[in-house]
Specification:
One of its GO terms (molecular function) is DNA binding. Residues 20-119 form the HTH hxlR-type domain. The chain is of the alpha+beta class and 165 residues long. It has a single domain (20-152), classed as Arc Repressor Mutant, subunit A, CATH 1.10.10.10. It is built from six helices and four strands. The chain has helices spanning 21-29, 32-43, 48-55, 59-71, 95-98, 101-114; strands spanning 4-5, 75-81, 87-93, 151-152. A hairpin with a 5-residue loop joins strand 2 (75-81) and strand 3 (87-93). Helix 3 packs across helix 4 (59-71). The longest helix has 14 residues, at 101-114. It starts with a strand and ends in a 13-residue tail after the last strand. The mean pLDDT is 93.
């Protein structure tokens, strides 16, 4: 059973998805290399050459994705200097980038469940207790929400952006 579309959203043929937040998100992180760069940033990678090497993409592709993710606000450059070397930039997650952690973990856990024959290669745990960590939908007070319990309604404060013509 799908989510419950409420009010004017119940008739799917009567409204368009032209302002969908998922589309906006995919414009930023909708490529394999963008998601892999984020994964590496979550794992602690900060140096340009390490991103390209760990992901297995060309330096040109890495430079383009790092620029894109930086311009979008998910990463920021911070200068560093190795002893005897020149000043260079490393890439660190911003709050906006860190907020994607549940999305990336959720995708990995989905693949662990449905695409890994021998079980997951990595476990995500609370570092202090060792308790498994799971991505999922919860209300603000912590109640888990399944697809059949999910309601979708118009946000009362949202206003359609004016057309730019």
């Amino acid at each position: 059973m799908p989510a419950v579309m409420e009010g004017p959203l119940a008739d799917l043929s009567s409204w368009k998805t032209d302002h969908c937040s998922l589309v906006k998100a995919l414009e930023i992180v909708g490529t394999k290399s963008a998601l892999l760069i984020l994964r590496e940033a979550f794992y602690g990678t900060t140096r340009f050459s390490a991103f390209a090497e760990r992901i297995g993409i060309t330096e040109t592709a890495a430079a383009g994705q790092l620029r894109h993710l930086t311009e979008a606000g998910l990463l920021e450059k911070q200068p560093y200097r190795d002893a005897g070397g020149r000043t260079r930039d490393e890439y660190v997650l911003t709050e906006m980038g860190r907020d994607l952690l549940p999305v990336v973990i959720g995708l990995m856990q989905w693949a662990d469940k449905h695409l890994q024959d021998g079980g997951p290669p990595l476990l995500y745990v609370d570092q202090e207790t060792g308790a498994p960590v799971r991505a999922g939908l919860r209300t603000d007070d912590g109640h888990p929400v399944e697809l059949e319990e999910l309601g979708v309604r118009l946000h009362p404060a949202w206003r359609r952006p004016r057309s730019s013509s």
